[in-house]
Amino acid sequence: MAKQLSAKSTEYLQSLAMEIRAATTGQVVTYSPKAFFPLTTLCRDSCGYCTFAQPPARVKEPYMSREAVASLARRAAAAGASEALFTLGERPELRYRIAAEALRSMGHESTVSYLAEAAEIATSHGLLPHLNAGTLTAGEVAALSPHGVSMGIMLESISNGLECHRLAPDKAPAARLATLEAAGALGVPMTTGLLVGIGDTEEERVLALEEIASIHARYHNIQEVIVQNLLPKPGTPMARVEAPSAEIFHRTIALARIVLPPSIHLQAPPNLSDDLSGLLASGIDDLGGVSRITIDHVNPERPWPQIAELEAALARLGFDLVPRLPVYPGYADRIHEALAPEPRKLLLALRDREGYAREHLWFSGQAATLPEDLFSPANRVKRPGWLDEIATATRAVEPVPAEHLELALAARGSAAHEVIELADALRATVNGDEVTYVNNRNINYTNVCTFKCRFCAFSKGPNSLNLRGAPYLLDLPAILAKVEEAEAVGATEVCLQGGIHPNFDGKYYLELTEAIHKRFPRIHIHAFSALEVFTGAKRMGMELEAYLQELMARGLRSLPGTAAEILADRVRSIICPDKLTTAEWLEVHETAHRVGLRSNVTIMFGTVETAFETARHLELTRSLQLRTGGFTEFVPLPFVHMGAPLYTRGLSRRGPTLREAILLHSVGRIAYHGTIPNIQASWVKMGIEGATALLRAGANDLGGTLMEESISHAAGAEHPHALETESLAAIAKSAGRSLRQRTTLYQRVPEAALPGAIA
User: Fold this and answer.
1) Quick check: 359 and 296 in contact, CB under 8 A?
2) 2-350 with 400-753: one CATH topology?
3) Alpha carbons 482 and 485: distance in angstroms, whole number
């Protein structure tokens, strides 16, 4: 292949490389928010181009101390970094006594051993270690692999006779390829690459790329290849060597994109080139690590570009910049088996649904300031074809295919903005500029539950007494007192939900409903999840339809759509394995609609679900709505992670990202267009600023005043337990809209029933 490619023009190679990149990563260019940890600059090798390695006389300390590693990790995590890039000299203890003595004083015999501890320190402070330890034996790779989510070793060249490596035994190509092989056998995601301009030929560079491709074919663990250009540095033996021309550099990048499998990402460092457009025109899809708080210790004379400047430059060239983790999305989904529990847990915590890095330090339930440019129309790139097809379907009020909903849920950059704008336009058409709310009270009558939902920090069972709050069961007088308080302040609805108490039979729900309805006939009873209804009917030995009819006869007027979580049984087997199946949840609501009860659709998202499974949830409920017309609203409920067992045990993400949360409301508006007219924003989970943002992204309803919210706060939510009408009106006003009170079923409340309401 080398001779065939060498005969092609650079323009041809670049054109082919761009086609491959467009077919794989499209408009997305990634980078890793990182901090650079130069664990030691001592090295037994002397490479002819290197200024990173220093003799003992020029270093203050042989190694970064444990305290220095911890301090940098804390600062980096606070600044939004996710990667701890450990770069170090190779085996300095074999050359310098000071290195060996420093290691022994810290309780280590080798640099590799101390690197493992340093990686643990970085992990404990919130960063994912990427380990560039150089040439390693198979045993050393195995010893390091539990501590780093990924590792790296630059092959640099496959040539054995380079003058620059004459005094660098660790740069022997065979030894470096053996390290890649050892990592491949363990499934460790690896970075490698070429250094262009150190004396090898184009034919040798192609042979090196073919060798990398061969290793990947055997192990499928080469996640990225870096093509780096030599910048000769003063004071080195290669100081007077001519740097490779732009054409040679760009040509090598293009060759890499053509020779390597498309699944391998291609990187060129942006701080080593002044021609970003040339890098992109040659086929790269990644810009490597960029640090906000540390310099490039290998190339200290070349500062990192500013992220905002990179975003703007890429947008002008038609690309969206997306942060990633030290492992790329495909590798985040198949974590290597040797990885220790703590970095495994942190990897889940720092990733988004697709496996990229979280864009913002925002979490559902926690107070946070939203980015100012959240709805900025800037940085427009080429509109993807699927967006045009979605817009066409909504104009015709036709169902949007699930595959297009999946793409919209995963949209980024300008495509995400366009999804949001389409949803907001549909909202304006359907609902106008009114924002609605219901004056209601939540009553969670018990937190004792026989089910073991791993996402729930509210319910109390034998193994959850250490979580927030003590087990309780409200008696009937206490419940009636709460209803009386609600009615006294103008509430039109009480929402009743609780755990599945072991002492309940189906009569409990019937008797509770009847007691409330007899005492407060004007109050709309919005009560009982699908799980409560299903369990009640089962415990009484009644058919589901007959049980729902009996509840309705006792005063039940509508069902909340809770217990849906994600209507995908793979997800349910992880987050709520003993709960309702997807089919059972749908059966409860279809039966309820058939007997004359209305209900809503909820979705609890941000744990382990995929965009496909989320889109399928929308599709299943839309199909049910087309059959029955019984759903009044769609209520997305972002997972609040802080106290949830699913997260604390390292089994889930930290809830959705802000982009995911906003897009689900927008995509819900699109998916249900023409079927479900109302999209609700949960201010309990999204906060005041978040709810305001959702009103500009397709939502038209703020839910209820609540009076007391227990479930989200049991998981650690920091937002208010209740909001007065004036606060809801302020949210609507900040979105440029007016507020109107509604009933549970979205009817207008007579003005006489609105003491102090704001219209």
Assistant:
1) no
2) yes
3) 5
Question: Counting beta carbons within 10 angstroms of the beta carbon of residue 325, is it exposed (0 to 12), middle (13 to 18) or buried (19 or more)?
Answer: buried
Tokens of 283: 């086929």
Distance CA 686, CA 705 (A): 15
Check residue 283 and give left, alpha or beta (phi > 0: left; psi -120 to 50: alpha). left
Strand boundaries in 189-232, DSSP class E? 190-196, 222-229
For residue 388, the tally of other CB atoms under 10 A from its CB is: 11
Contact 565, 555 (CB under 8 A): no
Contact between residue 221 and residue 373 where contact means Cβ atoms under 8 Å apart:
no
Phi-psi region of 256 (alpha: psi -120 to 50; beta: other; left: phi over 0): alpha
Between the CA of residue 100 and those of 38, 44, 63, 301, what are the distances in Å?
A: 17, 12, 11, 30
Say what the pLDDT of residue 414 is: 84
Q: 111-124 vs 341-350: helix axis angle to the nearest 10?
A: 50
Write out the CATH class of domain 400-753. alpha beta
Rounded-to-integer distance, Cα 456 and Cα 711, Å: 8
444 CA to centre of own chain: 31
36, two tokens: 């650079």
Placement of tokens 């061969």 in the chain? 214
**CA 190 remoteness from chain centre:** 22
With contact defined as beta carbons under 8 Å apart, do 676 and 747 qualify?
no
pLDDT confidence of residue 609: 96
Distance, in Å, from the CA atom of 632 to the CA atom of 679, rounded to the nearest integer, reads 9
Q: Measured between alpha carbons, how far apart are the two ends of the chain, in Å?
A: 73
Residues forming beta bridges with residue 526, ordered by sequence position: 495, 558
Helix (H) or strand (E) holding 329: helix 329-332
Distance CA 745, CA 560 (A): 12
Six-digit token pair at 316? 């002008």
Cβ(365)–Cβ(644) below 8 Å:
no
Closest CA to 652 of 406, 454, 356: 454
pLDDT at 756: 39
Please report, for the chain, the start and end positions of each structural domain, with discontinuous segments joined by +. Answer: 2-350, 400-753
pLDDT of residue 364: 87
Cβ atoms of residues 267 and 282 within 8 Å:
no
And the tokens for 539?
Answer: 């415990």
Domain 2-350 matching CATH 3.20.20.70: the answer reads yes
Structure tokens at 308: 């905002």
Question: What is the spatial distance between Cα 194 and Cα 531, in angstroms, rounded to a whole number?
Answer: 58
Measured distance CA(440)–CA(704) in Å, rounded: 6
Cα angle for residues 61, 65, 68 (degrees, 5° grid): 110
Q: 320 pairs with which residues across the strands?
A: 28
Question: Do residues 260 and 155 lie in contact, with contact meaning Cβ atoms separated by under 8 Å?
Answer: no
* Chain centroid to CA 562: 23
Quote the Cα angle for 322-661-565, to 5°: 125
Beta bridge mates, 228: 195
Along the chain (759 residues), what's the average pLDDT of each consecutive run of 10 residues?
80 97 94 97 97 96 98 96 97 97 98 98 98 97 97 97 95 98 96 97 97 98 97 95 96 98 97 95 97 94 92 90 94 86 94 93 82 63 86 96 97 91 97 96 88 69 49 92 93 91 91 97 96 94 97 98 95 92 97 98 96 98 98 96 87 94 98 98 91 96 77 51 85 95 93 43
